[in-house]
Amino acid sequence: MSSPVSYELQGNIGVITLDNPPVNALSHAVRQGLLDAINAAQSDTSSAVVILCEGRTFIAGADISEFGKPFKEPGLPELLNIIEASSKLVVAAIHGTALGGGFETALAAHYRCAVPSAKVGFPEIKLGLLPGAGGTQRSPRLAGVKSSLDLITSGAPISAGQAAEIGLVDEIIDGDLSAGAIAWAEKLVADGAPIRKSSEQSVPEFDSSIFDQYRATLANRARGQVAPEHVLTAVEAATTMSFEDGLAVERESFVECMNSSQSVGMRHIFFAERQAAKLDGVSKDTPNRPVENVGIIGGGTMGGGIAMSFANAGIPVTMIEISDDALARGLGIIERNYAGSVKRGKLSEEKAAACRALISGSTDYAALAGVDLVIEAVFEDPDLKKKIFKKLDAVCKPGAILATNTSYQDVDAIAAATGRPEDVVGMHFFSPAHIMKLLEVVRGERTADDVLATVMTLAKKIRKVAVVSGVCYGFIGNRMLQPYGQTAQLLLLEGASPQQIDTAMESFGMAMGPLRVFDLAGLDVGYKAREALSDDDKGDPKTFRVPDLLVEAGRLGQKSGCGFYSYDDNRKPTPDPLVDELINSAAADFGIVRRDITDEEIVDRLVSALVDEGRKILDEGIAQRSSDIDVVYIYGYGFPAARGGPMFYADNRRA
User: Fold this and answer.
1) How far apart are alpha carbons 139 and 482 in whole angstroms?
2) Nearest partner of 637 among 402, 388, 440, 382, judged by Cα
C-alpha cells in the first residue's frame, strides 16, 4: 500500500507532499510518511524542505477516528520534535485550513507561508481537549501569551493575515502556493536565513495577571468545563519552564482531558453533528434543486434574522410584508443588526453593506414569482399560514420550495393548503436566526426527497447545523421542552424556588435555567396559547398555575420588568419575595405540602423529563437517531456540550 506522503527534490529544495483526502488528517500512515520524508531529506543534497498538501486544504487536524484506539508510533509530539530538529531549513506551506495537529505541524517548521485565503487555529477546546503536540508551548513563544490564549481557548480559526500580524505566519504567498513556497524557500537559503526553532525562542513580555483574568472569564463562559483550565496551566508552563518541561505539562493535561467524560461527550457531538446530515431513506445521489434566490414572508425579528442568514451566505433575499410601514420596520431591524455586527467587530463595514444590499423588500407577493425558495415566518396562527401557502401556490414558479418556519404547527396540514405538497417542508430556525446554528428540517408526509436533500445542503451553505424531524406538535426540540417546563413548575410547587431551580441547572451546565428562559421568551406567550385550549388539552393545572398567576398579575417576564424574577434596566434578574408568596399560595390551593428539594433532585427530574420525551420521539420515528436529539439540544437549547446531549448523558449515566 503506497504512502500518502511523497518526497522529491526540485532543484535544491526537498518537497514533501501529503495526499490523504479529504482533509489530510494526521493518520498513522501520514505521520510515518512525514517521518520517513524528513529523515530522507537529512542525507540528500537539499538545502531546505517545503511541506505541501494536495487537495483543498493543508493538514486539517488529527485523525479523530484513531482516538481511543491502540497507539501507533510515531506519535505526533515526537514527530514534530524531529521536524523541528531538522538540519535542513523546513518551510510549511499552508492553504485551506491548518487546524489542531495540522497547525502544530506548521509551528514545528522553521518558517511558515500561506495563501491569503488560508485559516489556522486550534479547535481542540471544542472537543474538550487542548493542543497536545506542542501547540501550547510553541504558540506563546511566537505570538505571545494573550494571542495564544485567545486562539486556543476560543477554538475559532483566524485568517492567514491575522496570523501574520501576530507572528504565526511569516509570508503571504499570492498566486500558486507550490511555486511560491519553493521560490521563498530558495530565497531564504540564498539570504542565509537561520534554522529558527520556535522551541528555543523566549516568550515575549506579558502581564502575569493575565492568567487570573482569563480564569475568571473562562469560568463564566465555559461553566464546568475542565479543558480551559488545562489550557491556562499549559500556557503558563510555557512562560515559567523549559520547552521540554512545558511539553510534559501539556501532555499530562492532554491525556487527562482525553480520558475525561467531558471530552467523550464533546467528541460524541462532533460525530453526531456529521451523522445528523445523513438522510434515512434518501439516496446520496438525489440531485439538489437550484436555490439562487430566496423569499421571506414576514419582516419581524425572526424573518429578518432568516433573511440575514441567507444574505450572509451571498444569496439574494426578497422580504414580503403586509404594508410599507411594516416593511420599513423589518428592513430597519436588519439595518440595526448589521450595524451592531460592525460595532462588535464581527463584520467589516464593506461586508455588512454588501450583505445588506442583497436584501430587498416588497408588499406584493408577485415579487416572489421567480424565487427558488420561500420561507414563511409569520406568527403561529395555522389559519394564517394556510392562507399564505395558498397565495404562494398561485404565485411561485413550478419547482419552487415552499417552507414554513413554524415552531409547532402541522406541516402536513399547511402543505395540504397547496396543490404541491411535495414541495413543502418545515425549516424551523431558532432566534436570533442569524446567530443560532440549529435548523430543524421537518419532513412532511409528502415532502419530496430532492426537496429534503436540497434544504440539508442549503443548511450547510448558510452555516446551520440541520437535523431532520418528522411531523408532530413541537417537532423534536419544543416537544421535549414541554415536559421539561412542566416539571420545573411542579418543582416550584413542591418546594424549590425559581433561583434554586435555575442555579441547579446552570451549575449542571445549561446556558440558562428554565425559569429564566420562560421570562426571556415572555410568560404571556404560553398564557395566550393556553387560552385557546380546552381544559383536557391544557393538562394538569399544577403545570401552569404559577405562570398564569404571574401573567394575571402583570408579570410577563423581562419585557415587563418582572416575571419569575424582577429585572433592572440591564435585565439582571433578582429573586422577588412576591413570587415566593404566590408559589406558596398556589401550592396551598392544591394541598401540596412544600419540602426541601436538593439540587441533585432538580437536575435529575428535569433531565429525565427531556430524556423520557426523547425516547418517545425515537419510538415514534420523529427523530432519525438518538444522537440527532443530542444535536438539537446542544445547538438549540443550551444543553451543555460537555455532557454530550440529554440522550448520551442518560445512556452513559446509566452505564
Assistant:
1) 47
2) 440
Tens digit of each residue's pLDDT (9 = 90 or more) over 416-458: 999 999 999 999 999 899 999 999 999 999 999 999 999 999 9
> 331 with 249, same domain?
no
What is the spatial distance between Cα 199 and Cα 194, in angstroms, rounded to a whole number?
A: 14
Residues in Cβ contact with 598 at an 8 Å cutoff, skipping those fewer than 6 apart: none
Residue 591: partners with Cβ closer than 8 Å, 6 or more residues away: none
Assigned C-alpha cell, 110 = 522553521
What pLDDT is attached to residue 223? 76
Cell of 117: 485565503
Residue 381: CB atoms within 10 A of its CB come to 12
List strand residue ranges (DSSP E) for 26-110, in order: 48-53, 89-94, 97-99
Q: What is the dihedral of CA 106, 107, 112, 116, to 10 degrees?
A: 70
pLDDT of residue 222: 79
At residue 305 the predicted structure's pLDDT band, cuts being 50, 70 and 90, is: very high
Beta strand 5-10 with 13-18 is antiparallel
Mean pLDDT over each residue of the chain, to the nearest integer: 95
78-125: pLDDT as tens digits: 999 999 999 999 999 999 999 999 999 999 999 999 999 999 999 999
Of 593, 591, 629, the C-alpha closest to 613 is 629
Cell of 488: 420545573
pLDDT of 321 higher than 70 = yes
Name the helix (H) or strand (E) containing 64: none
- Mean pLDDT along residues 590-610: 97
| DSSP assignment string, 76-124 | HHHHHHHHHT-SSEEEEEE-SEEETHHHHHHHHSSEEEE-TT-EEE-GG
pLDDT value of residue 1: 65
Residue 238 shares a structural domain with residue 315:
no
Instruction: Give me the domain span that covers residue 10.
Output: 5-258
Block residue for cell numbers 413541537: 474
Longest Cα–Cα distance in the chain: 91
pLDDT class for 65, splitting at 50, 70, 90? Answer: confident
- The catalytic residue among 84, 124, 236, 440 is 124
Residue 24, helix vs strand vs coil: coil
Please give the tally of structural domains in the chain.
Answer: 3
CA distance 574 to 567: 6
| Domain limit, last residue, from 446, 468, 490 | 468
Q: Who contacts 386 (Cβ-Cβ below 8 Å, separation ≥6)?
A: 413, 414, 417
Of the candidates 513, 508, 468, 465, the one whose C-alpha atom is nearest the C-alpha of residue 492 is: 513
Instruction: Please tell me whether residues 493 and 399 are part of one structural domain.
Output: no
- Rounded to an integer, the average pLDDT of 39-58 is 97
Same domain, 313 and 350: yes
Which residues neighbour 369 within 8 Å (Cβ) at sequence distance 6 or greater? Answer: 395, 396, 397
Cell of residue 135, nine digits: 501547540
**Is residue 280's pLDDT more than 80?**
yes
The helix/strand/coil state of 89 is strand
Is 422 catalytic? The answer is no
Q: Are 235 and 148 in contact (CB under 8 A)?
A: yes
CA-closest candidate to residue 610, choices 479, 430, 493: 479
pLDDT-derived band at 654, boundaries 50, 70, 90: low
- 283: in domain: no
124 flagged as catalytic: yes
Identify the active-site residue in 54, 73, 84, 104.
104
